Amino acid sequence: MAERLRADLVLEYPFTRTTGPVIGAFLTGLREGIILGIRRPDGTVLCPPTEYDPESSVPLTDLVEVGPGGELMSWTWVDPPRAQSPWDQPHGLGLILLDGADTPMVHGLLVESPEGLSVGMRVTARWRPEREGHIADLEGFVPEGADQ
Amino acid sequence: MSADPSIPPAALSGEVSLPEQLADVEPVRSVRTPIRLEYDFIPGSASSGYLNAFADRKILGQRSPVDGAVFVPPRGVDPRHGAATPDYVELPDTGHVGGFCVTRLPIPGRDDLEIPYVSAWIHLDGADIGFLGLVAGIDTSEVRMGMRVRAVWKPDDELGRTAENILYWEPTGEPDIPVTAAGTNAWHAKQAAAGEQG
Amino acid sequence: MRDIAVVSVAQHQEKALTHTTEVELMVPIINEARGAVGLTQDDIGFTCSGSSDFLAGQAFSFVHTLDAVGAVPPISESHVEMDGAWALYEAWVKLQIGGVDTALVYSYGKSSPGSLRDVLSTQLDPYYLGPLWPDAFSLAALQARIMLESGAVSEQRLAEIAVRSLNGATNNPLAVRSSAEATAESVLAEVPLADPLRPSDCAASADGGVAVVLAAGDRARELCERPAWIRGIDHRIDPHQPGVRDLTRAPSAQMAAARAGASADRLDAAELAAPFTTQEHILEIELGLRNGTAINANGGALAGHTMMAAGLMRIADAARQIHDERADRVLGHAASGLYLQQNLVCVMEGE
Prior knowledge:
The complex is a heterotrimer.
Chain A: E1 7-13, E2 16-18, H1 20-32, E3 35-39, E4 45-46, E5 63-66, E6 69-78, E7 91-98, E8 105-109, E9 122-127, E10 138-143
Antiparallel strand pairs in A: 3-4, 3-5, 6-7, 6-9, 7-8, 9-10
Chain B: H1 10-13, E1 30-32, E2 35-41, H2 44-54, E3 59-63, E4 70-71, E5 77-78, E6 83-84, E7 88-91, E8 94-103, E9 117-124, E10 131-135, E11 148-153, E12 166-171, H3 184-197
Antiparallel strand pairs in B: 3-4, 3-7, 5-6, 8-9, 8-11, 9-10, 11-12
Chain C: E1 4-14, H1 22-35, E2 46-50, H2 53-56, H3 62-65, E3 77-80, H4 84-97, E4 102-109, H5 116-119, H6 136-150, H7 155-168, H8 184-188, E5 205-216, H9 217-223, E6 228-237, H10 251-259, E7 269-271, H11 277-286, E8 294-295, E9 305-306, H12 310-323, E10 329-336, E11 342-349
Parallel strand pairs in C: 2-3, 2-4, 5-9, 7-8, 7-10
Antiparallel strand pairs in C: 1-5, 1-6, 4-5, 6-11, 10-11
């Protein structure tokens, strides 16, 4: 009676979510290769865009292009990569403040090692060749000039 | 803010302004976000004791320290009182049908199951709650509350720590027990009888 | 407002419960909390619990755990998918409304069967963050670097917070990580887990459960020699998207503390449910904790963090110090979500 038993249990949720017009527009932009933010009443731009102003909760509707370049505000190094993430190699994870945006977004940083990362460095978007309207259409961000 | 709740907020009405590049493209309306989570499931102490014995063709219940009621399969607790139930009781593989259902829909992944099939609460002799099993070896129209049944086990060399050990329950041919003393009525009948004796 | 007090607490925590179901875990804890004040479930007016199905991998798993309570005949009951501190808040509101004088509150978390850092990714917004599967340590590391780069905290200070927990936990049998020898130097020498966070910056994950009995007015005085009277309790929330927040701050913690009256008088002890040293530092500032307040004297959540119960455990730890006459005025804190998104503050006093 002492033997300890165990069993594999796997839960899968094959969700498809509706986006609504704001998130839908952002993901449409990614599919088309541009990044969108959304303008608040005070003129500042949120990226990624939210449907409502986080302070006043007024609906936001004015989507504007930002990036693809920006500044790295913070980073960490992910090794090994997480099983379900879009990345299969060790990579950075960063908060990226895109040009034209006033808030940073979380995304991957595609460099060989953490030595290649520093706060304040310029980075730019790298796109996947096949895109479907998903946050991972952006493969991640690379140091500016790396893809030229 | 609109005072009229029938008017959706702007963000729901779809009236957003877009840069020119996106004016004429098909908008994204949905996104796939699958989730997969893996667990190392632990049945715990009471269920482990039950499953280990079950692999040896034994059915274990646990006895309530409060009033002696026997629960099978055991969960380590008398759920009526929140009292721990450390004592195991070995139960026979005979009992009666406490309640049943004839099902004519297939179960995904159980192609081996012929339709219609009968699932039933089996009340083991000496237990005070039912547990779930299939009833077979009899025409579905003949199954009834109070019908006496016995377990049909897999061959010994195929037994494991799994609920699949009992293939199904078949009629013993003994006389039925009265419906008034079958299934969930059994406990009340037993309490009433004990009361008369006491 | 009615006077409502914590009159009894019980808890258990260990690194991993490998042979125990949630029900088997909670039976002795709930019985200990009720039994210590001579109550059975028949004497409890309202029961409320907190847990998360994502830890168990089973929908509505809390209904099974009610077996540990004893719900026959039917009881007045509720559940939140939150840390048990929010279940305590709901029970407090129920007692304020009246009609009942006692409440049982419990919560539990057994995260060892899954990968907690990945399970926590499922709490993130499912469009922008969730599909990237950033794990809990990496996200905390992004905050840590912003705090360090902006001068909001120093590595030395974070190491001192880690040492406070490691040293304090040596006297706590429920802690799963402790060290009498740890120093700031030894912590700073650790290899980062998620750069710049070191292992001792991240709470040690644990399995466990906690139960608390609340009582109102004279009923509390009958049941307990020195009830821990709840003088203020409040919870507040900040926005979810990390980009729209100042990650060096937790305004919701500050507001909850203000509304709970935390700084109205001297606090003898504060028990904080921060899962990272960086967040413990933010809380010290936002809650206005000053010299003379013992913070996480027994190691706190860093020394053993039971998901869904860490906050109620902190309230229980704080209340016990009132019961034992070790303190006169204490604060218990609970947090939920990314970067201390949601905070609850409970201020308790002895008479």
